[in-house]
């Protein structure tokens, strides 16, 4: 039972939540989500879509019209359980971004690969005589600039699949559970570096808190609904070391998160949705309309 709950992972609303053509399509923050010390490796695939609307924004020629953006990320991901306390995670995204103004612009390609080591510093979930079960993890990761960042004749860098920079990720997660009820907390900070074109996307911080309930239908079938809140802050980008005011980037957003997890034997199905309840992105020029993501993963048993 505990192993099944622990298999619910990789909530990355925020790997795929806060982006638009002028606020950082590939440069947003990274989250891991509900992780556990179960005895499973896993591999999976998931796809998420985000919708944005940009109000008229000033440029050198006056004003641009209202634009609509759709960002789709499909990624392969997995975890290798090296030992009881240490895990290695990997994410390989394929990005398809689209913007509609007078004409439609489409950009697609391999995104930036992420590798992360995850250490379980607290875990009493194996004990049977405790009222509250806890598990805590700390992760360190790196985002590798594998995605296309520069494209000749295209200057909307935030729509491109990659950032061109090596970035560092710190992730903290803590879960507490009593009977079938639980609370998951996760915080993440992404430190971004300057790429070879002297452009540096702004650092990003995110927090997510989720209440969940574990509903066991059969021995190997469970449904886990989750409800909570997500918060993110993005710092401004920089060009040549100076704040990039012309891109109107940076800002804050608070969203309501609703998820549904299903575990059927060795198959996990994840459905996630996020709706903003308060936001101030890019000086108010951008509104995030929503996000939905669906994923499937397969658990591989291990004796470690």
Written overview of the protein:
The longest helix has 5 residues. The strands form three sheets. A twelve-stranded antiparallel β-barrel has the order 1-4-5-7-8-9-10-12-14-17-18-19. The chain has a three-stranded antiparallel sheet with strand order 11-15-16, with no helix packed on it. A two-stranded antiparallel ribbon has the order 2-3. The chain has two helices and 19 strands. The protein has 304 residues and is mainly beta. The chain has a single domain, classed as Autotransporter beta-domain (Lipocalin). It is 3% helix and 60% strand. Strand 18 and strand 19 form a beta hairpin.
Which tags fit this structure?
globular, mainly beta, Lipocalin, 304 residues, three-stranded antiparallel sheet, disordered N terminus, twelve-stranded antiparallel beta barrel
Short synopsis of the structure:
This protein has helices spanning about 1-5, 15, and strands at about 40-55, 60, 60-65, 65-80, 85-100, 105-110, 115-125, 135-145, 165-180, 180-190, 200, 205-215, 215-220, 220-235, 240, 240-245, 250-265, 265-280, 285-300. The chain is mostly beta strands and about 300 residues long.
Order of helices and strands: HHEEEEEEEEEEEEEEEEEEE
Residue share in helices? under 10%
Rough outline = globular
What's the number of domains?
Answer: 1
Which assembly state applies to the chains in this document? Answer: single chain
- Which CATH architecture? Beta Barrel
Please, what is the CATH homologous superfamily?
A: Autotransporter beta-domain
N-to-C CA distance: 18 Å
Structural class: mainly beta
The CATH class assignment is: Mainly Beta
| Biggest sheet: strand arrangement | 1-4-5-7-8-9-10-12-14-17-18-19
